[in-house]
Every structure is written in C-alpha cells, then in structure tokens.
Amino acid sequence: MQLAPNGAPLAPFKASYFTVEPDGVSPVDSHSVHEMWMVAEGQGELTYDGQTCSIGPRQTFYFEPPKPHQVKNCGPEPLVILSVWWK
C-alpha cells in the first residue's frame, strides 16, 4: 500500500474539476488513462470520438483511452465538470 506524506492511503485515481464559461470550449483532450466526467452544473455539448451529445447536471461519462473528447458550454451559466482518471 502506498501512503501519502501524512500516512493516509493514496487513492488509486486522480481528480480535479474544471469550468467552461458560456460560449467557451475546452481543448480537445486525448490521453493514455481512463477518465470519467461528472457534470455538476450547466449545460453543454460533448464531442467524444467523433460523436456529439447534449450534457447536463448529474450526468456521468466514461472515456476510453486514447479517444478524443471536448466539451462546449451551450448554456447561460458556467459548465462545471468533475474529472476522475486512472491507469
């Protein structure tokens, strides 16, 4: 088991969140890790591996490596997404 400097166990994943402002677009992302997005707030349009769909709060999406993904904010409020990734 790996431990953090304070002795707590390390999680087998990493996480962050990001915000896309109204009419904004995230960069196209493609990488070697598995990733999951959870939409916290806002409305948008997700493009994943060439396919596009509408997204909104409480939706969750899984991305296989190395398939490209990008999100556009199509609503009037910030689009807030939690991202979790692992090997």
Textual characterization of the structure:
With 87 residues, the chain is mostly beta strands. It has one domain (14-86): Sandwich (Jelly Rolls), CATH 2.60.120. It is 0% helix and 48% strand. The protein has no helices and seven strands. The protein has strands at 14-20, 34-41, 44-48, 51-55, 60-63, 69-73, 79-86. The strands form two sheets. It has a four-stranded antiparallel β-sheet, with no helix packed on it.
Write the layout of secondary structure elements.
Blueprint: E1 14-20, E2 34-41, E3 44-48, E4 51-55, E5 60-63, E6 69-73, E7 79-86
Antiparallel strand pairs: 1-7, 2-5, 2-7, 3-4, 3-6
Structural features:
single chain; mainly beta; three-stranded antiparallel β-sheet; globular
Q: What is the number of independent domains?
A: 1
CATH topology: Jelly Rolls
Radius of gyration: 14 Å
Supply the CATH superfamily name: Jelly Rolls
Helix/strand order? EEEEEEE
Global outline? globular
Q: Distance N terminus to C terminus?
A: 16 Å
Biggest sheet statistics: 4 strands, antiparallel
Give the helix tally.
Answer: 0
Please tell me the overall pLDDT: 94
Fraction in beta strands: over 45%
Name of the CATH class: Mainly Beta
Poorly predicted parts: none
Q: Into which percent range does the helicity of residues fall?
A: under 10%
Strand order of the largest sheet: 1-7-2-5
Secondary structure tally: strands: 7
Q: At CATH's second level, what is the architecture?
A: Sandwich
Helix-and-strand structural type: mainly beta
